Batch of 2 targets.
Target 1
Amino acid sequence: MSRKTGGNFKDLLFERTTGAFAFLVLFLAVLLFAVLLRESLPALRKFGGSFLVTGTWDPVLEKFGALPFIYGTIVSSFLAILIAVPLSVGAAIFINEYAPPWMKTPVSFLAELLAAIPSVIYGLWGIFVLVPVLRDVFMKPVAKYLGWIPLFKGPVYGPSMLAAGVLLSIMIIPFILSVSREVLATIPQRQKEAVLSLGGTRWEMIRIVIGQHCIPGIFGATILGLGRALGETMAVTMVIGNRPEAILSLFQPGYSMAAVIANEFTEAVGDVYLSSLVLIGLILFVMTLAVNLAAKWILTKMVARASRGI
Amino acid sequence: MKKFYGVLAGVVAMFAAVSFASAADPLTINGAGATFPYPLYSKWFYEYSNAHPGVRFNYQSIGSGGGIKQITAGTVNFGATDAPMTEEGMKKLPGAILHIPTALGAVVPVYNLDGVPAGLKLTSDILAGIYLGKITRWNDPKIAELNKTVTMPNADIVVAHRSDGSGTTDIFTNYLTTVNIDWRAKVGRGPSVNWPVGIGGKGNEGVAGVVKQTPGAIGYVELAYAKQNKMKVASLRNKEGHFVAPTLEATSAAAAGMAKSMPDDFRVSLVDAPGKESWPISGLTWILVYKDQADAARGKAIVQFLKWAIRDGQKMEAALDYAALPKPVVEKVDKALKQISFKGKSLY
């Protein structure tokens, strides 16, 4: 109450009301966690910590373990980041620094339009276009010549961890691209000109200035994309192959946490079964939370270092 | 401008609420459950409400498991399921429940093989072998021997199954469990199971997508879905040793084959049914209603509707690719409907 509300009742009312809204959001998150925890108790009691490291998912015998789903979520999401970050950052640099003015708006508009496509459409496109093309053009030849590498081992079906990763990368490109562009736009014109005036080439200008300025922002953009990839359900389940096995090969089908919940929740009869699915939800919740907190922490460090560097 | 849209949205919402309230005036029967009969039920509700304007239906196709949960909790007036309730599940119910069969469904193996036309002959052991991962190539001698008129390609079999829990999977795995000892020991039956091999597709469309897009793939979908999408379907050898193609008639034949041994509570599986013409992977779908209704008017309306459904309703099944209940079964169901009562008085 130390703030200068000046005894004005309206001010006080406004402060309290908006404060209540803020707490409501927090309260919802806590409530969500509590409900997930309560509903997952039967599974937690039955399986305990072994739930995290067990690879069996047998609804008939009611034996459940989340390892293949955790693995699938992490691998497909990181694969997506691996593909999407260089692409979107590169595209952002081109649009901001090189593209002629008539090109900037349409290109960035179209790229950002990708974000508006519903994920089920991505999934359908994945089944009917991406998976067959990926299978015939990329996976088959690679499996033929590089099949001895564990990452590309085994028969080629089409629906696979790789397909999920590629599809996810397309889905998160608009997010990373548009945030990266915003970040690049914050570079002071003077700094760019300073580098150029010292005889630097355009490439050197980009390398130096971006290295100085933009890494934290791009990192933030990446986390935004990662967050979306971790939770994506519909599109992933349509192309990942839905096989609860943690296999190193990217050409083999896998499964993700969000996908198994969406797939099996409606027909999950039996307390342990249902509770195991909720427990997977809880793990996903904690995982996203952890990723975001870690990102926040790294970001603070980066920003501190970047500002020290200038 | 934004403000204007906000006001507009408010007005629209208000009108929607008003019209909704007046639409709720007739008796509304709430139901929830199986997705498989949903197209049929929608048609039924529409036709029935047109003929009987005093009754309206609200059906949520949330899946059989959800339907059982909701009728157990008493949040709906009727449930719908593709798999009969278990003894254990029925113990949790507040009162006795009736399984009323409404339609028949069939699950059919579909495949994508260049040069092999529809009608590939399979047996239960081959199908189980494929889904167990024991038969992995299309030119396996067991398959080739049955299909001498075609040259079976030397290609890998890609197995596709449902990834979402579903009544279709329940019927399919029930069949494999019934006919194959290995399958029973290793996998068992259920709306979702621990598949030994294969790729999971979400929904009929997901499995169909995998099969259509993958040369050498085999999967299973509902008969209606296979027909409407003109997929290649396999013929299966039934209990009496005849190869039958999956048709509505062959599905009804399976129910007719079981009619004599149909238990009074209708909780029966139609897989591997006797009869020369019977399609072996058939199943019933049921509406679940409590024997003792809590509300006389609602109970009466439900009974009237069910009476209509097993008579006039059956004529609409074929057009939507459902197989109709055979006559002896209809007669038996009709008797069962007389058990539905309010305070001890039959509502029939």
Target 2
Amino acid sequence: MADYFADVAIVGAGIAGSIVAYQLGQCGIKVLLIESGPAIAPSRETEVERFYTALAKLPESPYAVNPNAPNARAEHLTKCIWQDVKKTYLDQSQSPLPFGSTYERRAGGTMWHWLGTSLRLLPNDFKLRFNYGVGDDWPISYDDLAQPQTGQSKSYYRMAEEEVGVAASVADQKYLGISFEPGYEYPNPALPETLTDKFFREGLANAKESFEGCDVRVSPTPAGRQSRPTATRRACAGNTSCIPICPIQAKYDATLTLHKAFSTGCVHALFQAVASRVMLDTQRKQITGIQVIRYSDPTIKSRSGEDIVKAQIYVLAGNGIETPKLMMHSGLPNKTIGKYLMDHPFYLRWGLTPKPTYPYRGPLATSGIESLRDGAFRKNRAAFRVELGNEGWNLAVGDPQTTALDLIDGTDDSHTNGDRHKFHGRELMEELNKRFTRQFRFGFLVEQTADVNNSVTLSEEVDNLGLPRPKITYSLSDYTMRGFVAAREFTDKVFNRLGITQKSAPRGFAGAFRFGSDDFEFLGAGHIMGTYRMGTSLETSVVDKEQRSWDHKNLFLVGSGVFPTSGTANPTLTLAALSFWAANTIRKELGR
Amino acid sequence: MPDEKLKLKKFKALSAGLTGLSMMQLSPNVDPIGLAQQYWDTLQESLDERLRADVDAMLEEVKPNSKDDANKPAEPADENTIGKILANDRFAPLARSILKLWILGAFYHPRTPQTPTKIVSSQAYKESLVWKTMQGHPMGYSMLPYGHWSEEPLPLNAFLALVPSTEAKHG
């Protein structure tokens, strides 16, 4: 057993941990990162090859299974498996509905398979209770993130957008109260829209469409993708595989920030090092150390020893599942830890456009309908943002395989081969062409209420290191489900208006529920939020607005686990902005 | 019993007939990837003895039929031959497994026709014809430049060199 000493110890080398490490390292603060997974590999070819030859192209497909640091996996989310603790990592045996989001435990974290969407939250997302009497208010406001704080030259959102290299234009992003600091420009110009985007943008603008009193407007999505090449990065080539892996790293991932952190000379990391226990001194309200289990080989069970890391300040930057698991296993007395688990349940509707829109080209999503993210309707139902997919029915029905098999075998799983012809030759190619070039899907990211019963607790099941596995209890409230109903109505209205042939049908997803007389299916969005929420008191939250633990003054918990409400924006940009904030607080506390 | 070289040639002729692809695109003269060989090998490795015999019997239907013809360039199997094969209950599932190899780069056993057993190789994934029917590129493998997605793609015949079908029949 060895002892390591640093000024700041950070558990987790994903985007939050890497940002904090980089910011502190730049000030000469000695940082030690504790990462449960392997270090950054010299190239990503192994991962890309693994993706090409994987039968199921799931978020985790490019990444090797690590029996020492197991993770939530999409392959566990079938109807037959998701509640079977012998076949999964997350214990969902008692959960009413499946929690559908997954994560990676490796240097760079889940940014390896994020989409790149870098939306800001809306001002009203921070005061949902104040405005609509629903959920909670954040202890911070939009302006706390969007305007420079006293003594600072840049806002935290700006710092995050610069770190991620967000491509967008301010003119496109000023809606529903979003404002920017004076003279602000995004670090990179917006990416070009796809032909699908253009079809919807023009069609909906011409129709002057509205929905429940809101304009319906298509806008370009701010993206963590290179829209121009730099000395170190390629421009996006439209590989249409942001999830699960960008083969050319045109999409930002946290390994970029991690490399910069190391280049300060002040940041070091223990890889293949699983934080097993946070050592609490409840009398003095202090963390005194972190116990770490080491293993020698990420491909096989290979526990090799234990270490203790000691620091002045500790930062937990796992995710909304691993961080509360670690804190509960360490005996944190907080009443709120692990509760209020949220995602953006992801609802798909799909059809065929009246003319070819040529999907399967470009980044996975480049535009969305953001104008429905806020309105008086939030008194009654969940809001949503609408992602326009560029990947045809890949996610919706499992194409291109499903449609191809239908036309070859004379089946009709895709609902595009009603007379069950069996095609071959030139005719097969032309029939496939007719379908694939017109495929389209909406993806609704539905706001999820923070419900106290949706939680991460400790399972009686343990992992290969003997650590308790996370136990998930997850469901959707009526308020959230009413958002699904509105999403369905919205789809019908838009598809009808634009002449899109609706092909949505049940797919047998594990995530399924009935509401009223309608059946719905959903997936996870990969947005694990809420389980160590920020708030105004120890009684109702885990951290304060600076993300400092109420229970332990030298402990910070960063990541989207601090979100008190989900809003409808993909959480990465906001959690990155908050990580800059936490780093700034820690820096000042250490007198730098 | 035709030798392996002749079998491979017949396999290419059958594959061209099934896919509608020109022989030049299906199996170019200079062929560093050798998909036809990869797919032939996959069949041989994945099928039991009885089904391999069925493949041989199916190939008997396909020209060229003698060793003398083995040196002439292969021609796509004509629609008559393909129609006969697809009308034969013993051959049709095998023919469709071969068609799926080309379209999807994956092997679907004729006994479990909708469940793939493997992606043949990363080249097979990247070269599978389904991406070309989209006028697109394989997901995760774009050799196209930044911003290409905002323009209409090249026409289908720039992606697929298809032989005009004489009498398109449903199998």
